[in-house]
Amino acid sequence: MQQNSEYNRRRIRMGIWFSAPAVIVLLTVLAYPILASWVLSFLRVYFAGQGLSFRFYGLTNYTELLTNQLFREALLRSIYFTLVEVIVVTFLALIVALLLNHPLGRHAFFRVVLLVPWALAPVANAVLWKWIYNANYGILNQALIGLGIIDRNIIWLGSPVLALNMILLADIWKAVPFIALLLLAGLQNIPSHLYKAARLDGANAWQQFQHVTLPGLKTTLIISIVLQSIWALKVFDLIYVLTKGSPADSTVLLNYLSWRVTFSNLDVGYGAAIANVLFVLMFILSLVYIRALRPRKTKEKVG
Amino acid sequence: MDKNRTFNRVSRRDFLKLAGAGAASLAAGNLLAACAQRASGPVKLNVLVPAAPDPAPPGVAKFSEEAFAKWKTDNNVEVVYEAPPWPQLHDKMAANLAAGQYVHDIMYNCGWGPEFAGYLVDFVKDLPKELIDDLPASSFSTVTWDGKRLGVVFTLSLLTLFYNQEHLANAGITDPPKNWDELKGMAKQLTGGGRYGWVLNYGAPEGIGGVASYWMCFLQQAGGKLYGEDGMPAFNNEAGVDALQVMVDLMESTDPGSISYVGINDATNVFSAGQATMMMNWPFMWKPANDPATSKVVGKVGSALLPAGPAGTASIDGTDAYTIAKLSPNPDKARQLIEFYLDKEVQKRQVLDTGWLPIRLSVLNDPEVQAAAPNAVVILEQAKNPYDSFVTPDYNAVTTAIGSELQKALAGSESAADAIKNASDQVTEIVKKRGS
Question: Do the domain assignments include residue B332?
Fold first, then answer.
């Protein structure tokens, strides 16, 4: 017994030593920037016009957030963007997954084609949509005019509401494939005998979907929703390439606002405070994600 | 039990010895490589400039290649360029300078001189007198901060009016507009049949070339200015509102896509396709607008002074300048490289081969240059009138605040008066925070 304890202690110590380099790298790459961001948010950072210097600022950056109209609007827009994207992506991805799970849709060709939008680099995706939405030369206007749906060019990125929703559309297009494949994996994990049993009990297609498919996809759906929420909150590339926050700041979301304040306006402390708000939102979502990944304990029936 | 002892043969001491040996080898290798570089070879200058077609030096843009190669050989210098797209330059500089480490010797600057003043060398006093005397004195205004001249502008780049001569002739108009009323009237007359009288990029609010900077042209034409003597905003008045109102009035004749164009190239494409008649643009546009490969309006482009407001014509300066970083280990060699960029023959090839006008007055007045760039005469004339870009250390924040309000007025969701008032209030807060 004593030798076993010594063996286990040595195993644990060796494990710590071997994992130490990786942990150090993670602390450096992740923990240090996060900690630095929190520290910066309590400072007034002087950069422009003079050398770099700092002054303790307390909670001033955060109180400025609370009273800043642009921050409030960016936060509300980010919440709207996330909610709509999650709902639409999940709905579309589920339909695509169901189609791919059908015998006719199981050919690998469809899955490869489906992955193309997701595989595009984010900036390449943004430049692609910039040309699609171009008021004079964009294919979207040409196609709609050709089909007789509109009779003159629409300035897709010219009005506040339209610009935000067109960015949303571009992000949805890119996000659907990955979530569809995630849900497809979930669908294929549902035992087929449950569907047989349901059919024997007289369930129609909709009832099978309601009582077999959805419950079986519950964990996968939660994971998809949480992941998609995190990605939607982080959106930056589309705004940077398509609108730069215009028109009139109507497409400024939290991540873009943090970048603009930090790198364009050089108000580093205030920018860090905005980034930390985003960090807290995503941290909460991450906790939900981790909880959803935990193996479910099956309750044993007694009697 | 014996098997377990065999499995755990690697001790902590052995592991630490191995790790230490590995780290020492890496450090020694790096040190040897660095020493080898320092001991021999040319002086290395790292230069940050925009990618062409934005204003770029020899080695990035295709001109004076032989002269550049000779200069490098004669001076034992290796020039390493980093040339990202123009929109990335400011962020790159901000991140590099904040890191406090040497990255670049020479950096291109565009209105950011005051912003990065604490990191730049006042090297202009060491330039040859002959060179200084050949530069417009006013060209130093945008690179001077707190009494120090921190850079040298290398291209005379003021906004002027570009117009399609054929469109005007077909409408029976003989001369381009000379004042605001003529500008609005002609733009309206020339709008129709899928074509617009005016086009510009109103999609980006901030910086030189953003919508706020265009409004500053009209502001000065109205006799206004951005700041008062006390450094506080001084544009919430008739001049500021009238300047914006002209832009609003033009909207009925403006390409509707203008509100979504974030870069000048988006607007230039529309003009070069013959779908718009007039625009404001930088001098470089002359060359691509007359290039059959990129333009449908070759030989039909005219250039003129910006139409005058109540106080006359006015423009803004593109402020394209070279600066030297304080952390540069070779500031003298860096200055010599800048002197090469400003050499008369190099400046001449700059305009003949790339379209970017020279800054040297003697080269601007060269008959060969004026023949190749007829708009040079217009630029020189425009430069006799106000062209203040009102750069300050917080130029991006100020122009973002102003530009966002201007966009609301241009979109019709706010009156010009309300937009100017809101912009003034926001800039006041920014200026107050400057000193806090």
Answer: yes
Distance CA A272, CA A275 (A): 5
Query: Looking at the structure, do residues B142 and B201 belong to the same domain, yes or no?
Result: no
Identify the CA nearest to A80 among candidates A2, A152, A161, A138. A161
- Residue A17, domain extent: 2-56
Kind and range of the H or E element at B81?
strand B77-82
Same domain? For B49 and B94 the reply is yes
Q: What's the domain range around B90?
A: 43-156+318-382
Amino acid present at A172: I
Contact assignment for B256 to A135 by CB distance below 8 Å: yes
Amino acid in the structure at residue B72: K
DSSP classification of residue B242: H
Contacts of B98 in chain A (CB under 8 A): 47, 52, 268
The residue among A83, A84, A97, A92 whose CA lies nearest residue A216 is A97
pLDDT in tens, B332-376: 999 999 999 999 999 999 999 998 999 999 999 899 998 888 898
Q: Which residue has the tokens 């990191």?
A: B119
**Residues of chain A positioned with their CB less than 8 A from the CB of B118:** 49-52
Same domain, A260 and A186: yes
Paired with B164 in beta bridges are B301
State the pLDDT at residue B17: 76
Cα–Cα distance, B324 to B122 (Å, whole number): 8
- Do A224 and A253 share a domain, yes or no? yes
Confidence of residue B2 (pLDDT cuts 50, 70, 90): very low
For residue B148, give the H/E element and its range. strand B148-149
How many CB atoms are located within 10 Å of the residue B409 CB?
A: 25
B252-289 pLDDT, tens digit each: 999 999 999 998 989 999 999 999 999 999 998 898 89
Dist CA B194 CA B167 (whole Å): 13
Residues 6+ apart with CB under 8 A from A122: A174, A237, A238
Considering the domain architecture, whether residues B307 and B342 belong to the same structural domain is answered as no
CATH code, B63? 3.40.190.10
Whether residues B312 and B371 share a domain: the answer is no
Asked if omega into B53 is within 30° of 0 (cis), the reply is: yes
How many domains does chain B contain in total? 2
Window B:347-386, CB contacts with A under 8 Å: none
Q: What is the 3-state secondary structure of B56-119? A: CCECCECCCHHHHHHHHHHHCEEEEEECCCHHHHHHHHHHHHHHCCCCCCEEEEECCCCCCHHH
Per-residue pLDDT reduced to its tens digit, A74-121: 999 999 999 999 999 999 999 999 998 888 777 788 888 888 888 899
DSSP B6-30: HHT---HHHHHHHHHHHHHHHHHHH
Please report the pLDDT score of residue A289 as a whole number: 85
pTM, entire model = 0.86
Beta strands in B222-353 (DSSP E): 276-281, 301-304, 320-324
- Report the complex ipTM: 0.83
**Strand B106-110 to B43-48 pairing:** parallel
Q: Which of A252, A250, A212 is nearest to A236 (CA)?
A: A252
Are A235 and A92 members of one domain?
Answer: yes
**Cβ-defined contact of A265 to B396 (cutoff 8 Å):** yes
CB-based contacts of A156: which residues, under 8 Å, 6+ apart?
Answer: A133, A135, A138, A140, A141, A162, A163, A166, B260
CB contact under 8 A, B8 and A7: yes
The nearest CA of chain A is from the CA of B410 a distance in Å of 10
